[in-house]
Amino acid sequence: MLSLGWTTGYPANERDMAGYTADMVDAMLALIDAHVREGTHVTFPLQLWYAHRSWPQVERLLARQSCCDDGRQQLVSSITLWGEEVASIRQWVEATAHYQEDRIYVDLVPSAATTARV
């Protein structure tokens, strides 16, 4: 298994979170095609807010397939959504993780606002 991702920051506000762009995903898929052995499982750790804002691009990462020895196509990618838990998109996270529970993982920490109230 190989884990590939991007360096992301935590923007000062939601407006600055553009997400993962088509160019970023194109470059990542080209890198994988050029340098990763066929059949290797690739997992992508994705910052929660960025993934939420660019779900169509994330789906392209999940759609990555490889050919097996017998010629069948096999899905060989997964994602891990990471970051701070955000109440406003909690329902989206739960629905997304349920969408393909064997390929979408969630690793969130409680938000600072939630922690401060405890």
Q: Helices, strands, pairings?
A:
Blueprint: E1 2-3, H1 22-35, E2 42-47, H2 48-53, H3 55-62, E3 65-67, E4 73-75, E5 77-84, H4 90-99, E6 104-109, H5 112-117
Parallel strand pairs: 1-2, 2-5, 5-6
Antiparallel strand pairs: 3-4
Task: Summarize this structure briefly.
This protein has 118 residues and is of the alpha/beta class.
Q: Spatial order of the strands in the main sheet? A: 1-2-5-6
Percent helix = 25-40%
Cα(first) to Cα(last) distance is: 38 Å
Query: Count of DSSP helices?
Result: 5
Q: Report the sheet-strand fraction.
A: 15-25%
Structure description:
The protein is an alpha/beta fold and 118 residues long. The protein has one domain (2-117). The chain has 5 helices and 6 strands; from the N terminus they run E-H-E-H-H-E-E-E-H-E-H. The chain has helices at 22-35, 48-53, 55-62, 90-99, 112-117; strands at 2-3, 42-47, 65-67, 73-75, 77-84, 104-109. A 4-stranded parallel β-sheet has the order 1-2-5-6. Helix 4 links the parallel strand 5 and strand 6 (104-109). The longest helix has 14 residues, at 22-35. The termini are far apart. The mean pLDDT is 82.
Keywords for this entry:
alpha/beta, 118 residues, 5 helices, 37% helix, four-stranded parallel β-sheet
